[in-house]
Amino acid sequence: MHTSLTRIAAALVASTMLAGVANAETIRWARSSDALTLDPHSQNQGNTHTLAHHIYETLLERDNDGNLQPRLATEWALKEGDDTVWVFKLREGVKFHNGNDFTAEDVVYSIERAKSEFSNMRQLHAEVESVTAVDDYTVEFQMEGPSLIYPNNLTNTFIMDKTWSDENDLATVQDFASGATNHAVLNTNGTGPYTLESREVDVRTVLALNEGWWGETPAVTEIHYLTIADAQTRISALLSGEVDIVQDVPPQDIQRLSNTEGFKIETGPENRFIHFGYKFGDEPLASSNITDSNPFNNPLVREAMELVLDRDAIQQVVMRGQSIPTGIPNPPFVAGWTEELDAYPAPDVERARELMAEAGYPDGFSVTLDTPNNRYINDEAISTAYVGMLGQIGINVTLASRPVAEHSPLILANQSDFYLLGWGVPTFDSAYVFNDLVHTKTDELGTYNVGLYSNPELDEKIVSLNVESDQATRDATVAEIWEVVKADRVLLPVHNQVLAYAMREGVTLPVQPENQPHMTSVTFD
Amino acid sequence: MLAFIARRLLQSVIVMLVVAFIAFLVFRYVGDPLANLLSQDATMADYEQARERLGLNQPFYIQFFNFVINALQGQFGVSYRLQQPVSQLILERLPATIELAVASSIIALVFGVMLGIYTALRQRAFSTGVIMTLSLIGVSLPTFLIGIGLIYVFAVELKWLPSFGRGDVVQIGWWRTGLLTQSGLRSLILPAITLSLFQLTLIMRLVRAEMLEVMRTDYIRFAKARGLSKRAINFGHALKNTMVPVITITGLQLGSVIAFAIITETVFQWPGVGSLFVNSVAAVDVPVMAAYLVFVALVFVIINLVVDILYFIVDPRLRDGARSGR
């Protein structure tokens, strides 16, 4: 990780030095699936945001180290004397692609649109009570309570032009249940570094440099964004010189490509961890031969399961080195992550067997492990490897492998005893993990706490994070929650994913931890 | 005649209804569209609400019924994944698939007939053995392997032809063609060959078998006895009589080539209806999947209808049967 971070830093330095001098360059950039829509508030999905970041802009953004940076907002702070109001100072002199001025009313309009019924971005702004324009370049967000981390939620919420949107009747976001289609699905008017030239969905999107962009002129002046679904074809297109950058590189091709002359690989940690989860509670497991108790509910069994999980073996054999093993379900960029929490025990099968006997399961038990097979890097192979490891202590696992479209509804309905899941943390704050994976499952919280872990004391602390106004107190509470989550083994983390981008020699695209690379950061040798 | 066509049309409608019904029966096992539609941080309340709005909480026969009612009004809905009208998505991609299917059928027909005649006339030649063996390999190798192999040789190693996509296209009305640009034509070569190989071997073996059969018949022997030139016998008399079944098969195959170009389209990232379908299955985009399957049924129904009508015209016995007013 250290080397990749230095490489990123080096690339960033290089990009600032080179930006002015590079010639006009076209980049042909291929990935496995297209953006779903150009409507910036319709989908909360990585591919869609990645393309949108080139056309539209957000108030704040993440740099490649995961730090918050100004973008359309230049300064942001809690209002003096009122910790329920965030004040944002906006960048002056910014224009939309159609020439309209960017002002506070555009921000008000966009946040309200992102909060509206059919927007998939609305959870991120659920705590915003109202947004008001104080003057042309100042916006105030009235929160329902103190919300220290709210600015983190703004990095993928794009700002639209109110005048243009009103002209095209865009006040509501596309509703996928209705028969109508929305003008913003195929048309854009942002403030971003590139303008939309043409778009053929699932085929190619062409973007051209926005000459009037406020930022430093990027080296890339034209982008051909291509969709190539088949992994072999995608790599072939790079090898044959038809594309310059390939984003989704299968792990088995990484070694080969880095040894091929004329090509190189950039790798870096992704903000996404992979974990196993299990069913809590006294209710016996549906898929187990033990019918009078739930073995997973016994902390000794969970400890034994962690002791046979050989994370380093999974990293070396299954992931071919392309993962960062971890002992905490939280990626290293995220506030609340510490080295102590990240540490994990060395595998100890002897001790694990003792624990199983102590727990009353000397002969083990049987259970079904549900795993997706097309969602995360090598997801099914990770599960298969763990099945073998669990066999060492008599836990006899039947593997049920499904595409994610079947896996998700199954686990969301709490119908899985034992499952694999990956989780990204787009707010870069621990509360996001707690809210969805640790808090007791309710209509509003704990959606993916499908093991039904429930700890009322923790719930109270988790809810308090969302309204705490003192940073130090909040940090302390986050640390306390992590202590319990780790001690209780609420989840069994395996590793953080590593991203790999392949490109031709002469081009450098640094890895972005959310897998949302910006072509503005491309440099040419 | 009219009664016959009317009866066939009615049967066709029933076929399409059955296809749609089975499709909806199967869709439940493809997965939940909400897994892709909602964001990671959606709450359980959001899921409930979305399920309600999309009508996903209704039993499949109600969903099927709604689909049929809307389809009868020409409404196939909006794609969950791409948020564009389904009929527009399919129409936009249809030209790509048709151009690929026709190009590959022409390759298959031309080379299939040529090789078929050659191997029939030179039964014992060494080259015939080679061609027949190669044709076996052609039939048994899966399409995606052939595709990847061609890409590796002609795109990656030799760099002669593009490895993916359709090249530059020209818009003529609603038809987007790749046949008028150089890059479009170059892009067509590899996928068309890949898609044609199976049919090519099929046609070749059919022509060969028919030719061998015809060559044994009396009129060929008499023609030889009359001293006609070899050329006149082989092409004027023998080939002509082998073409009827070949044309029938090729016509029927065109339907399956349009419908099942899926693998070739995926390997070459060809932007046709097949790759649209594959992407839709992965995203459980029910409106697109349903419309596509009904469309495929329609293609087959039309081709079969045309074939039936042709038989009707050709075969007097069918005509008499219809007139007697069964």
UniProtKB/TrEMBL annotation, chain A:
Keyword Signal: yes
Signal peptide region: 1-24
Cited Gene3D superfamilies: Dipeptide-binding Protein, Domain 1 (3.90.76.10), Dipeptide-binding Protein, Domain 3 (3.10.105.10), Periplasmic binding protein-like II (3.40.190.10)
Gene Ontology CC terms: ATP-binding cassette (ABC) transporter complex; outer membrane-bounded periplasmic space
Pfam family, one: SBP_bac_5
Solute-binding protein family domain span: 68-441
GO terms, molecular function: peptide transmembrane transporter activity
Any one Gene Ontology BP term: peptide transport
PANTHER family, per database record: OLIGOPEPTIDE-BINDING PROTEIN APPA, PERIPLASMIC BINDING COMPONENT OF ABC TRANSPORTER
Designated name of the protein: Peptide/nickel transport system substrate-binding protein
Organism from which the protein derives: Devosia crocina
TrEMBL record, chain B:
Transmembrane region(s): 12-30, 100-121, 133-155, 188-207, 246-270, 290-314
Subcellular location, record wording: Cell membrane
InterPro entries cross-referenced by the UniProt entry: BPD_transp_1_N, MetI-like, MetI-like_sf
One cellular component (GO) term of this entry: plasma membrane
Broad class of the protein's primary localization: membrane
Biological processes, Gene Ontology terms: transmembrane transport
All residue ranges annotated as the ABC transmembrane type-1 domain in the record: 94-311
Keyword annotations: Cell membrane, Membrane, Transmembrane, Transmembrane helix, Transport
UniProt topology in membrane: Multi-pass membrane protein
Short name of one Pfam family: BPD_transp_1_N
Entry-linked Gene3D superfamilies: MetI-like
This protein's record includes keyword Zinc: no
Family designation: Belongs to the binding-protein-dependent transport system permease family.
Protein name (record): Peptide/nickel transport system permease protein/oligopeptide transport system permease protein
